[in-house]
Design a protein that fits this description.
The complex is a heterodimer of chains A (331) and B (336). With 331 residues, chain A is an alpha/beta fold. Chain A is globular. In chain A, helix 3 crosses helix 4 (136-146), helix 3 packs parallel to helix 5 and helix 5 packs parallel to helix 6. In chain A, strand 1 and strand 2 (32-46) form a beta hairpin. Chain A contains 11 helices and 12 strands. With 336 residues, chain B is an alpha/beta fold. Helix content of chain B is 36%, strand content 21%. Chain B is built from 14 helices and 12 strands. Chain B has helices spanning 49-57, 83-89, 101-104, 111-122, 131-144, 150-153, 163-175, 193-210, 224-227, 245-250, 255-262, 273-283, 290-294, 312-316, and strands at 3-14, 26-34, 38-42, 64-73, 76-77, 94-97, 181-185, 213-218, 230-235, 238-244, 322-324, 327-329. In chain B, the strands form 2 sheets. Chain B has an 8-stranded mixed sheet, sandwiched between helices. In chain B, a hairpin with a 2-residue loop joins strand 4 and strand 5 (76-77). Chain B is globular, with a radius of gyration of 21 Å. Residues 277-297 of chain B have low confidence and may be disordered. The chains are: A alpha/beta (331), B alpha/beta (336). Chains A and B meet through helix 5, helix 6, helix 7, helix 8 and helix 9 of A and helix 7, helix 8, helix 9, helix 10 and helix 11 of B.
Chain lengths: 331, 336
């Protein structure tokens, strides 16, 4: 699955990842439901590439990011990081490897300990990156500067910072251990538009400077396209479409990608956005959630191009053109 | 068009402080909403847009106080009403939809109980209403907001619904008594893009169908031309620009509106350090910490410390709202 099309070596690769969660039926019930959070996801992350994952909430993006970061063992498949299977390693080795994959979470409020000062948090991360004691102060200041913060804020506590500043601290902390991969789980969705743009610019700037691959997760197709080189569209645990970001944005192939694109507010045609568009008939969430699972296509119930053939057999992710993949038989 | 809500010279500040001492949280705000019109209020977090909404509802937090101004609703000053009179207006004449549907529904009561409460609270004085009748009205309300199986949903608890469904319930509660004005405070911020589209369609459809007015509060300018007829852009408690929403978005006058617009990500635009340098030079501030210094100064334009086209007079004197046709802007650049 690792495509090496002149983009450099593959640092991280997921191979046929599956993940299930088991839910109990009720307090007194012995029934158990199985929820498929991630189904047969394969992707590869070459050097210096940003892979954008888009999808609605509950589609498995976050689960996938936790599996990738070495925090949650998958029920099937392998995570190959630096040519080693992450979950075949022993605990100590895993812990050491895990440092090189850093996560930035959605909510900067809850991902910083309110009792620790910014300086402490950054220095702690630097210590984990084996920075000698005497250099700590200097390195911490330079890391903070590199994310656009004043080194003077080292003595402040998270509650004294704004949301955007906090997210900068979290990004700085992730960069401290010189990671090989940075996973960002909706890093800007809790921020204002102005701050959002600043953080996105910062991420692009860091990417140009340190050249590490990103996995960027968001529900906003616009933001993902802006930041990523490759986009994977996820729906109910499956990748439905994959391809170079601008190509997918300009000419989506899968009906679900079309729906996501139609949900992006357009500045130009004002009323057109809210006027109901016949090609995107939106079913309520409830209906599609209740009956899913049985049909081979996870998007069948909401699809506007569904036909009888969709139900005939399992639908594989197939290649279209040079570098696009799609899980739909009607295209 | 007939005016429904008129806010005149509203000043909101901290309780127990001199007005001259500190810039107020909302300063000299004028806002008008006509009947069946939808108006957007845009600004970043902390600019006072939610406080404005809460002051209309009479729900300001205890530490804040309205220093001066009038909020006229159909000619009646809401600030002069007592709690009992206000309570009659809230919900039946003006209703509000909050940002987070999870925290604005009571987790220990069913949807039905909470919907029924709206009717019970407001129909109390009149002739006794039959239980069955209320039940029917609840069911038809839930059907109007597009919830499937409305009868079963009445028995559901908020945690059993998804974010979009919860927001639908909130809209149903807001619409229950056919209010004349609905205030929606960032109703879609916590939601997915696809759900956001559904909720906006629903809200807009109901507003146009029932001919009520809408005050839509958001920080996302890209929603504005789709939702609002007119828009007010707010910054640090001040209205910076005002006008028909499409005109404001297509040709912004104030540098702050331009900054807000440039913050909307365009995937097809060039990216990377070069593009960033271009954009920051244009209209966005580089420094994050600059805001702190700007506070505490009573004079001058509030946007002066961040403004890319700042001049000497901007720091000395705050411009008034300049009127040109149906647009208003508070900037020295547009003074003839």
């Amino acid at each position: 699955m690792c495509v090496k099309d002149g983009l450099g070596e593959v640092i991280l690769a997921l191979e046929h990842i599956h993940k299930y969660f088991h839910l109990k039926g009720g307090y007194f019930s012995s029934k158990r439901h199985r929820i498929t959070a991630v189904r047969d996801v394969s992707l590869s992350l070459p050097h210096g590439i940003t892979y954008g994952l888009v999808g609605e909430s509950g589609c498995g993006k976050t689960t996938l990011s936790h599996i990738t970061a070495g925090l949650l063992p998958p029920d099937g498949g392998r995570v190959i990081f630096c040519e080693e299977d992450l979950y075949a390693l022993g605990y100590k080795e895993l812990k050491e490897k895990r440092k090189r994959i850093q996560l930035v979470f959605q909510d900067p409020y809850s991902s910083l300990n309110p009792r620790l000062s910014v300086g402490y948090v950054i220095k702690e991360a630097l210590r984990q990156g084996n920075v000698p004691k005497e250099e700590l102060e200097e390195r911490a200041a330079s890391v903070l500067k590199s994310v656009g913060l004043d080194p003077g804020c080292m003595s402040s506590y998270p509650h004294q910072l704004s949301g955007g500043q906090r997210q900068r601290v979290v990004i700085a902390r992730a960069l401290c251990v010189s990671p090989l991969v940075l996973i960002m789980d909706e890093p800007v969705s809790s921020l204002d538009v102005l701050i959002q743009a600043q953080i996105l610019d910062l991420l692009l700037e860091i990417k140009e400077r340190v050249q590490i691959p990103y996995i960027f997760i968001s529900h906003d197709l616009k933001i993902v396209t802006y930041l990523s080189d490759i986009i994977g569209v996820m729906y109910r645990g499956e990748i439905l479409e994959e391809g170079p970001s601008l190509e997918v944005y300009k000419a989506p192939l899968h009906p679900y990608t079309e729906l996501l694109l139609a949900s992006v507010p357009k500045m130009g045609d004002a009323k057109g956005f809210l006027a109901s568009d016949p090609t995107v008939e939106l079913k309520t969430e409830h209906e599609s959630l209740n009956q899913g699972g049985a049909c081979p296509c996870s998007y069948y119930l909401r699809c506007n191009r569904r036909s009888r053939e969709c139900l005939s057999g399992p639908i594989e992710l197939r290649s279209i053109g040079e570098n696009r993949r799609i899980r739909c038989i009607n295209v | 068009m007939e005016g429904l809500l008129k806010i005149k010279g509203l000043n909101i500040g901290l309780r127990g402080q001199d007005l001259g001492e500190r810039p107020s949280i909302v300063q000299d705000l004028h806002l008008e909403i006509s009947k069946a019109e939808s108006v957007c209020l845009v600004g970043e977090s902390g600019c006072g847009k939610s406080i404005t909404a809460l002051s209309i509802m009479g729900l300001l937090p205890k530490g804040l106080r309205i220093w001066s101004g009038k909020i006229l609703f159909e000619g009646m000053d809401l600030l002069r009403l007592n709690e009992k009179e206000l309570r009659r207006i809230r919900g039946s004449e003006i209703s509000m939809i909050f940002q987070e549907p999870m925290s604005s529904l009571n987790p220990v009561l069913t949807i039905g109980q909470q919907l029924r409460e709206v009717f019970l609270a407001h129909l109390k004085g009149e002739e006794p209403v039959h239980k069955k009748e209320i039940e029917d009205r609840c069911v038809s309300l839930l059907r109007d907001v597009g919830l499937p199986h409305p009868k079963d949903q009445l028995r559901a608890y908020p945690h059993m619904l998804s974010g979009g469904q919860r927001q639908r319930v909130m809209i149903a509660m807001a619409m229950a008594l056919n209010p004349k004005l609905i205030i929606a405070d960032e109703p879609t911020t916590a939601l997915d893009v696809t759900v956001q589209l559904q909720i906006l369609r629903l809200l807009k459809g109901l507003q146009e169908g029932r001919e009520c007015s809408l005050l839509f509060i958001t920080h996302d300018l890209s929603l504005v031309p789709n939702v609002g007829d007119r828009v007010y852009v707010m910054y640090k408690g001040r209205i910076m620009e005002e006008g028909p929403s499409r005109e404001v978005v297509s040709s912004p006058l104030h540098p702050y509106t331009k900054a807000l617009l440039s913050a909307i990500v365009d995937p097809e635009s060039p990216k990377g350090i070069k593009a960033k340098a271009l954009r920051t030079k244009d209209n966005r501030s580089n420094s994050v910490l600059v805001d702190k210094n700007a506070k505490g100064k009573g004079q001058g334009c509030r946007y002066a410390s961040t403004c890319p086209s700042v001049e000497a007079r901007c720091r000395e004197l705050e411009p008034g709202l300049m009127v040109a046709n149906d647009r208003k802007v508070r900037c020295w650049l547009h003074v003839c």
